[in-house]
Structure formats: C-alpha cells, structure tokens
Amino acid sequence: MKVNTPIWHPCTQMKDHETYPIIKIERGEGIYLFDDAGRKYIDAVSSWWVNLFGHNNPRLKKAISDQMDKIEHVIFAGITHTPAQTLADELVKLTPEKLTKVFFADIGSAAVESAMKLSYGYRYNTGNTKKNRYMYLDAGYHGETLGALSVCGEELYTELFGNIMIENVRVQGPDCYRCPFAKERSSCDAECFCHMEKAMAENHDRITAVILEPLLQCAGGFKMYPPRYLQKLVQAAEHYDIHTIFDEIACGFGRTGTMFALEQAGVCPDFLCLSKGITSGYLPLSVVMTHDGIYDAFYDDYTTLKAFLHSHSYTGNPLACAAGVETMKIFREDKVVETNAKKFHAMHEYLDKKFLGKPHVGEVRHLGCVSAVELVKDTDTKEKFEWKDRTGFRIFRKAIEKGAYLRNLGDVIYFMTPYVITEDEMIKLADIAYESVYEVL
Length: 441
Prior knowledge:
The chain has helices at 46-49, 58-68, 82-94, 108-125, 146-149, 155-158, 194-203, 227-240, 292-296, 318-333, 336-355, 391-401, 423-440; strands at 25-29, 32-35, 40-43, 101-105, 133-137, 169-171, 207-212, 216-217, 223-224, 243-247, 271-274, 286-290, 361-367, 370-375, 404-405, 408-409, 412-415. By secondary structure, it is of the alpha/beta class. A hairpin with a 2-residue loop joins β16 (408-409) and β17 (412-415).
C-alpha cells in the first residue's frame, strides 16, 4: 500500500516504507532511542553524526533552559549576545592562531555556502574576478544546497541537478583501500596528491578555493586518508594562490581522535567550516572561521559596497550558542579527547577481532572515534556487490530488528556513536553488526 504521510523524509525512498514501517521515536536516553512501542535502539550513528554526549543530557538541557529564561532569539545584524561571544572566544582558542574571525550560520551546508561566497567575495573586492571556480574531491560531500552540491563528488546526490549548478573542477582524491600506487595508508607519502597538483597547475588562474573534508570523507563511504595529503594540499594551494576550505562539519570536535582533524597534519586552512557536534547535536548551528586577511578585504566604508551581505534568520541563535558553550565546557572539564582515545581503542580492537579476515570483509578501518567495515563481493579483487542488491541496506534493516540503528552507506557499515557509549555497549553494538552482516550474507 502506498505510504500516505504528510512528511516527506530526507535521503529516503518513501516507497521502501511500504515494506519497512517508519520508526516513531518517542524519547532518547544516553546512546539509546526509544520508539512508541517501548523498543530501544543503540544510536550507532549519533543521529546523523551530531550527538556527542548522549540524548537527554542534563548539562545541555540546563544550558538551553537557562538561556530560554533570558532570550530565545534576536536578530544578529548589529546586535550581539553573551552566548555567541563566549562561543566565538572558545573556538578561537581551540583552533590555529591564524583563525581569528567567526562567521555564524545555522546548518552545515550554510557554512559551506558562506565560505565559498567569502572566498569569491575576497577575489571580487581585491580585483581578481577571474578566480571564480572551486576544486573538490571525488567522494567529497559538503551538503545539498546548490552551491555545496556543486562541490560534491558523489553522483548519487548531484546527477539530477547538474544542469542547474555551476561547473567546478573535480579531482581524483585519495582511496587508500584501492590505492592505485599500491601504498599503505600508514606509511605513504600521499602519492595520490599528484592528481590535485596537476589540476592546480592547469586551473589555478580560475580557481578561488579548494574544499575537502580533512582525513575522513564521511558520506563518500567513510574513506580515511593520511595527514600528509593535507600538508601537500596547503603547500600547493599557497603556491598557486588558492584558498583552502576545510569542511570539518562531520569530522570536527573529536571525531578523528583530535579536537580537529587539521591538528594531525599541523596545518591551517583559510576557512574552517564547523557544525553538527558544535552543540552536541541539540540545536542547529554552524560557523565559518577565517583569518584577518579575508576579513580585511570586506572592511571598508559603506559606500565602497564591500560588506559581506549574507545572512540567515537564525544566525547566531542564542539557544544554540548556549548549547555550544556548554559543549565546549564538557570537552574541557571532562578531558573528552583524552578519554575517547582510550575508550575507542578498545572498540577498534574488538571490531578487528570480529571482522578481520572474515568472508566479504574488504577492509576494517579506524580513525579516532570512527570505524568502518567495507564489505565487498570478492576480497581478492575488491569487486563491489551489485548496487541494486542493496546489501548494506538489508544489513541496516536487520540491525534494526536486533536493536541498533546502524545506518549503512552503500556497502560500508560504519560506527559513529555518541562519546558516552561504554565498552560493554561497544561490544554489544559490534556483535549486532556482525550477526546482521552474516545473517544477510
């Protein structure tokens, strides 16, 4: 029977719900989601990679409630407030010294769009309008508004809308599992950067910025690549006068094992986009961080018309900023990054024990608090399953039956849990994943 609901769910073929009823979640507690029948599910994907410190967290709830007693929202043009000021100060302290300015938005793709516009706006204001295109990587993903889609390397999201997007320069990116140079992720010199080097050399006259997700391409199949790639990128971009936009919307705030992935390469971009975990997933918020060189290109008398006229109704929302401030306090007071390093190492070991060397397991990879199991038809040739068979999707549905919301990306099963998960819960989740994989296969 045709699904008849007024809600059109995102990233979903609604016809699937003729077979699989939509799950109605009534509440959450810690790492668990509870449906309207009382069944509970491990939130193995942190509710789309946003939740850091668990559902129904008393500290975050109190921070939002306390702010609600003061003011819920106010226009952010020419007005400021304490939560935004405090959060901006915290972010400046946490990031490289060069990043001195914080531009607020509301969601991840809005931050990406802002960074793209800031980069070109800088060119316009400094008299170089020929630099009006962007470079991006295969398997890269930066959101689904049109500007962000124009730098997306996944055809699944872009093919339908190609005719209404600006044409940018796509570059073959790292693929360590299927490395064409037969190198190892842990010891290579990022030989695959040759593709980016060539693209920069050929296109630098028209490229204003290059955008990528540092170390971890989430929506592109949880590909993980070495810090050396970032070092080469920043060096080459400086040489060719190309801005660097680091999208740490998903991989920031401890996900890769350091507060920000860029720390592992010891580099600083021109623009840093942050969202998702910035409020521990409690309210929508995003920021773009940049440096004085960009800021100064927009700073002038009004009559020069150089101001950055870009805004969103909920820019700098006080409730979201209050959640962000409390999130930063939790990181600092609970030494979250250090604690996670020990905790998630145990999960790495257990997942390796369960999956390595097993049938159809192509690779098990880990980076900080993120793990992924890539399943393939043939482990010798690395041949993928036929995509129409929806192997990963069937595993995802099987895991739901067993009490885990373990959403797949193609035939990659990934683990990006809230940080409050215990080691016993990690083992339970890994066991559910293993059982689900081999009941389907």
